[in-house]
Specification:
This protein has 219 residues and is an alpha+beta fold. It is built from five helices and eight strands, in the order βββαβααααββββ. It has a four-stranded mixed β-sheet, covered by helices on one side. It has a four-stranded antiparallel β-sheet with strand order 7-6-5-8. Helix 2 packs across helix 5 and helix 4 packs across helix 5. It comes from Acinetobacter seifertii. InterPro entries: McjB-like, McjB_C.
Length: 219
């Protein structure tokens, strides 16, 4: 029922939707949320309260995929823009070839970084699905994440958590690591955050942050 490029979660009775096509979020109030729940579950016809959101729906799709979260804790007034203070101490250094590779990924992904969000996500899904996992060196992953933080302060683009996570995700995919890229949200004050987990361990980020956010997308 909901198109493939939109990811919806119900946060304490209000739906939040991640829009991969436009790289933005959509917010429904409680009345709109009830109307959408009823519509996607087949218990009512289309409600005029959803007139601004007709682009979300495809009648040929059967499942609704709206995840419900109750009493999500969230973190108030948290800054997602500066993730450098999450750096863990390096146990080992990454080799020069991998450093060059990360810089190349950096420029490929973020020349025009505000565009092609859907394509970047879908390509990552495709590559990850078709990659045989052979590596699990968490220390090396942390060192790679630290290197991304390090170069982001010296290269031209302003990287936030999403950009840092995407660069690391593509690097780990090509290096054949088992990982998950996750995007989580809180409702009031609304904030979104992206991070990487390897074997369910959060990499170069606050280790308990994911417990306080509703996960809207996991790859």
């Amino acid at each position: 029922m909901i198109r493939n490029d939109y990811y919806a979660i119900n946060l304490d009775g209000e739906i939040v939707i991640l829009d991969l096509r436009s790289n933005c979020f959509h917010f429904l109030d409680k009345e709109q949320t009830v109307a959408m729940d009823n519509y996607v579950n087949g218990s009512s016809t289309f409600d005029s309260k959803l007139d601004d959101y007709t682009f979300l729906f495809d009648k040929s799709l059967k499942s609704s995929n709206i995840i419900k979260y109750d009493d999500i804790e969230g973190i108030d007034n948290y800054s997602w823009s500066d993730v450098s203070h999450f750096i863990n101490k390096d146990v080992q250094d990454i080799n020069i070839k991998d450093k060059i590779f990360i810089v190349i990924i950096y420029f490929i992904l973020f020349t025009g970084k505000d565009y092609f969000f859907k394509q970047k996500i879908n390509l990552l899904k495709f590559l990850k699905k078709n990659t045989k996992v052979v590596n699990n060196n968490l220390d090396y992953v942390n060192s790679a994440a630290n290197f991304i933080h390090h170069i982001s302060s010296r290269l031209p683009f302003n990287l936030k958590c999403l950009e840092n996570s995407l660069i690391l995700a593509y690097f780990l995919t090509f290096k054949k690591y088992n990982f998950n890229l996750k995007i989580g949200v809180q409702k009031y004050d609304f904030l979104s955050h992206a991070w990487i987990e390897v074997d369910d361990i959060v990499v170069s980020d606050m280790p308990d942050l994911s417990k306080k956010l509703a996960i809207i997308l996991a790859i």
